[in-house]
Write a structure and sequence with these properties.
alpha+beta, about 475 residues, about 50% helix, homotetramer, about 15% strand
Chain lengths: ~475, ~475, ~475, ~475
């Protein structure tokens, strides 16, 4: 089966899936005024493979067939570096918004390969075989795949089986000869309104008593009982002049409900093995944070570039404090990029031979990104000036009455065209001071794991033994 | 003349003023779907004086007549503290958005009192007399007054008279027997679409060659030649459930153009005295930053309160990192509040007897507020979680189909009503992750002076002599 | 009894107290080459009262008698402000090192007044009477008083009565008709090698089972069984040219051992009332952190002054980054000072009528001081340059051979005398890059409560209810 | 010539060099009580090559001969990585204090290779030939080499030839047929009291008028006219129990005076080519900051290890804030290490084929190290507790009288030996709260370039063009 074109991708989404937006059932996600923007955005991943400039990066040949590089199982640092580059490239084309319809799904598939291999080593080979078959199916059909991981969790101080409502975590409510029936809901499911498949993973380690919650599986999005309630966040009719990014690029987020959904055994990847739930959640996260840092790089590049460009237009680029801010932004971008490359270079191999980027470096990179993001936004807003939130409308610029006034008065230094300056200011406003800016801020601290999760993982991955031994030796208490 | 009621205030704005919004002339600012929200918000200042709970704070008796406390010339620390409290109170009623229609105008009037007094001491008494008469008129008619200070500035590396376009700063283009004619434009003019009066101040110190730019005056907003081009930022039809603040509260910002506007001498407060331009700009800022910190306090209070409330609903308030964040937010709120009270307590008196809050402490307070704001937003977003940008719509909650699913799955810990949780999340989303959130971020770093301006003023106001002498004495080089 | 003179003070210390320094018993703390420096330093508190320039601040008249202001029970904000000023003044005279021989003792006495009053209200009046009598004795004899609070604690995860060694916290080992016998040890006891009295307080709240540990009392320092093991930290023969502060100023710290020490009842202030241990520890801390911030102000003043002075000598004061650093140092000094004054102004009254500085503001001030101290040191070191640690010796400057070379080459800009520059550099080196500098750093994060303790207290003192109510109201869930 | 042994190295330093310490001429640097410690420390570089455990790292075979790896010209990333590892290893052996006697000299030699090659390309081949010959001589004789770069600078706002004293920068005072005569002085010259050779480099770019100052050369340390005035900083008789690092490890810093020193042409590497002064200064710095970050890694490792070890001994390692601090320390160590490895991996080749580590990444790494160092010290001091500055002396521990008390009371949790805890505390005290701690702090912000220099270089090396183009493209103003 050849790679899908963008047009084929879009056509394939018209499948009767159950999606709600603002209380109303969505008939056609492609034609919908809001969800359709997300479909167009997602099509970037398919378009890249179609684009001669990007084909060498986006497509690899395996066993004589072309497949999307996303589906290429990483076996070397170089594989990870190229994957990272592809993720960054598609995000760049997506105007700093990750495309994600293949990125996240393959992160999950890599994790499933590793964890099912470990289960096979302990005697449960069925999961490995199913994972392989499912992976090949997705790869060969060039499918778009979402991942649902975060449970609604109920009371966060209690474990799954201790909740007042047993459905606060997705669980197996029935085991049948032909498969399982699952119930529950996941939040923050990105892009699922426009993928073909949905992989469901546990959100955390499970204890012995949580057997029903140690479950992983995949379903087609149009499966009966799967209901997607899409968030209206940031969804209003946007003027592209004023919202150059978010008027054209969007990612849908849903509350994903599993109302007694039947999953045949061939699509079940974990069903009760509580000891594997934690490793599966964690291995997914190891890949996904590496993916995440990769797709944050264009965002940081844009912060630097927009900050520098507007400083120049405003005529302040020589000021000491401006250089200070640009230097800090540039260092931020540089460090996060270098750390994630180093994470690929310091990867380890996990059976069945997959390269896993260094979790320590990945988490350090992710934390550097996440913890400094708001401060970086502050610096860019500082460089841009108050017009970010006080500039006139495009209609004012175009009007015969007000247009000349706007043109005369908002040009800044000689040689700068007012329209260009307003466009640049609107880009920064859309990027940092709009709902899209808020979305980026919230994603920075929550998506792919919170700040606390990154710190916890860093603490666990760092090997304190060498440093402690060194300290003891120097203290003379070796 | 008695104090205006909110109804009288609104009625009085229907005066034919020249306002454009998205390229179209606005006939009636009160009835306009966007500008009307700003009018309602502004009416809070009048409503407060009408409200028995707030009357003692909002109204003072002077010479047997009741006047708005805003117009009360501060002569003691207590006056400044009460003024600060009034500003904070009206902003609290305004859901963290400053009302500003009397706050900023009186800041300007206080500065004009002081600077015109100094000019009188140097022989130019006419300005003082005009300022007093104008002040009394505004006070007695209980007027709403905007201030336009920031020029469009053209090339920031050049002074006013060195610009390619001589109109890059507002200037006197003609001196007539009966007054002056001014041309130019000011940016970031807040609330002027719904005030009666507009005071224009120089934006910076002027050199000898910049005489035409050393100009201050006041005009009624409906004056011929004054054109207000309103910003469409954040102006779309908002669902109050999802935008509990910004669907109801708004401040308009305009590009304010002076197209050969005639100003009679009685309304001219500076016309060529270049040496007074800097002091006037600076004295206004001394009052206005004090005002600014006062009206930021409810914003900080809300960050603390919302952070704590959502942590409780999410059931995470006992976690160490949550307490750490709440402690930092509480410290931030506490320190900024204490510093601004201390600024009032350490005020100085300037002829003709006005109390000026300590500029050093005011700038230190303002910088503490502004430099940490984005980090505080990060902490609140961190406490709230990703639902800030992925939650369903109000229609999903109300729908018979999706409503039960939303209610079941988004309730968090026992005892929390899903709707209450969503309302609180929406409050935080509106406050921190929407265009309104972006507006607050940009205001933090730009309004009432940038971070750099605050640092510069701190450097100038701090008296290094004592510390240097102490260092030299301890070094033995006294 | 009149106030003691410095000479009387020194003479009175020759009392046979049991002090060890580097394993050897110290016969005479005044004559000892190390401990004697601390005695000279401590004498500043007595000298101030003797000095006409400071007498009005240092001495107050009460009931027709002159007493040291330290002993003046604070009843108003003004009392607290003056006390704060006195503490800052004596520390200034002490070259940024607190004198402490009356400061800390009176903090403890104020706390004892309040807590014993509360005990009296619950029926145990004996403690109040003893406290008053003891206070009057110290005040009338103008005594120097140390406080021992921090127990050695053993395993910090266990409470006092759960320790393997029951002596890990000071405890009552015997109750007799005439008094109690105590055993245990306290660490970090400052200045006790040169005070007359030692007050012992519990270090934390106690549970019901910890009755033997809920003990407070006072003993003369020469009491049998009290052994002081003095720390040798920073004690070597210092060249005053190179260590202009620490060659002349010193505070001793001891491990204070109570080896079955008998304390007569009249000196026992708590003996088993576990519920009062926490309040006593905390009330002491409320006063003592206020004292602490007061005596940190000269340190911050010196950082600013030294930073500015050396920047000028180095000829870099006009550079943007230098102004940035000086501004940050100045803001730091200003904010901490203003917050502690505000803490005095917002005091509350506790029975029997003592003014307690706002614990919220005190902790916020203390945390601002402590958390930024190392960064401030970094800035001053940055301004000063590498000569802090590479400059020649005073003997090189004085030598006929090397002196001219040093003078020629280390003069920096014209008009600066090399010797003056070296003296200033040595001051900064002593202040920030020596054992004394390390001492100041460690005190910043540990003395008078750790960073964590300050955060905890801030969290407890901040009233979240108002902010939460405000958030709920704006969210529409009032 | 074979590699030198430590004994041979020490013997070879007895050459009559002119060194002053505290105003007195030093006869024998090896036997001197202070300078001798530095000699012992420096011998580590020779000992490593002698040590079977380290020989593979420390020695390389080139053309059939063994040479010190320091002298191996780096041609690949791997060469740079191994060099970095060697530098880290010797510093580890040096207890976090860099050895430097070959590190810095080879940094200079690499830079001289590159800059003299560029000069040769422009027709001046003599320098290249001299550099090569000199390099081979040092390599073959396995010499220790210091570098003097920082001029005393006089008034920093003026260039070399504009100074009141023309000797404020080292300059050529006479050109002779057989060589040049130089005069001036350099500050902060590390290790030169115990190296064989001294290389002198310009400290900055020079203008056309500064020809006499564009000078680079090498001299044997015992050359007539070269006077070394050693700093007494931190030099006192230290108890090894209390100063486990600094009692045994030391680096000397000198003011290095050139009093009309004759340098034969074969040792002159730049003499008037002003355009090459800047590149030479900068190329040296490119290598030297890479070296610097390499030798800071053991310091960061020790901060982590000591912090963790003392937290465990204190029994607080499970507390949330302790884990937070340890995580931040671990991230700091990890990030700096990863960035410097990445700098090696992203090296570029400069004629004549030398690998230059990425200056952008090197500066980002160096700035991350330097800007966070004081904060890291704060965290370690926080974890360790106040005993850092209040603990008893070793004599108290050994004494029959006080020893049992110290042992009983300072043991912390069960299983911890008091002596071990005191040793660990003393290690941390020596590392962070002593003159050695101050030395490390000052080096962090000044050695190998200041914070400002690192930021400036980051700004220059970062390529803003791509980001700006990206921003313009997204803004639609491509």
């Amino acid at each position: 089966m050849p790679l899908k074109t963008p047009a084929q991708y879009k056509q394939s989404l018209k499948d009767g899936r159950t999606v709600y937006f603002r209380g109303a059932r969505v008939d056609d996600v492609v034609a919908h005024p809001v969800l359709g923007i997300a479909v167009e955005h997602a099509a970037i991943d398919y378009a890249l493979a179609d684009d001669p400039r990007h084909r060498a990066l986006a497509v690899v040949e395996e066993n004589g067939r072309e497949i999307s590089r996303y589906y290429h199982l990483p076996r070397t640092s170089e594989d990870l570096l190229r994957r990272s580059e592809l993720i960054a490239t598609s995000t760049r084309e997506g105007a700093t918004l990750v495309v994600l319809i293949k990125e996240i799904g393959t992160d999950a598939l890599f994790a499933l390969h590793i964890v099912s291999e470990a289960l096979a080593a302990r005697g449960a080979a069925q999961y490995r075989d199913r994972v392989r078959a499912y992976y090949e199916r997705c790869r060969d059909a060039d499918l778009a795949v979402a991942v649902a991981q975060t449970d609604v969790k109920g009371d966060r101080s209690l474990g799954p089986s201790a909740q007042a409502d047993p459905d606060a975590y997705v669980r197996i409510v029935e085991r049948r000869a032909d498969g399982i029936v699952v119930r529950g809901a996941k939040v923050h499911t990105s892009v699922v309104t426009n993928t073909h498949e949905l992989i469901v993973l546990p959100t955390r380690a499970m204890r012995a008593e949580d057997g029903a919650y140690a479950v992983a599986f995949a379903v087609p999005v149009d499966t009966r009982g799967v209901t997607l309630i899409a968030s209206p966040f940031g969804a209003f009719d946007k003027e592209p002049f004023e919202h150059p990014i978010s008027a054209r690029h969007k990612m849908m987020e849903t509350l994903t409900v599993f109302d007694d959904v039947f999953v045949p055994w061939e699509r079940v990847f974990l069903a009760g093995e509580t000891e594997a739930a934690g490793p599966l959640a964690l291995t997914f996260v190891k890949y996904h944070r590496f993916t995440a840092v990769s797709y944050k790089l264009p965002l940081l590049e844009l912060l630097v570039g927009a900050g520098r460009a507007i400083a120049e237009m405003n005529g302040i680029e020589a000021a000491g404090h401006v250089r200070e801010k640009l230097t800090r932004l540039a260092s931020y971008h540089t460090a996060v990029g270098a750390l994630i490359r180093q994470a690929a270079l310091e990867c380890t191999l996990a059976p069945p031979g997959l390269a896993v980027p260094s979790p320590l470096l990945t988490n350090v990179a992710k934390f550097q990104f996440a913890s400094q993001y708001h401060q970086a936004v502050q610096m860019v807003q500082d460089l841009a000036g108050g017009l970010l939130v006080t500039a006139p409308a495009v209609e004012d610029l175009r009007s015969e009455v007000t247009g000349p006034l706007v043109a005369k008065y908002l040009g800044a230094k000689a040689g700068v065209q007012t329209e260009e300056r307003l466009r640049l200011l609107n880009l920064i406003s859309d990027l940092t001071a709009s709902d899209f800016g808020g979305y980026q801020e919230v994603l920075a601290v929550h998506a792919e794991g919170s700040l606390e999760a990154e710190k916890l993982q860093t603490y666990r991955e760092y090997d304190f033994r060498g440093p402690v031994a060194y300290a003891r030796r120097l203290a003379g208490i070796g």
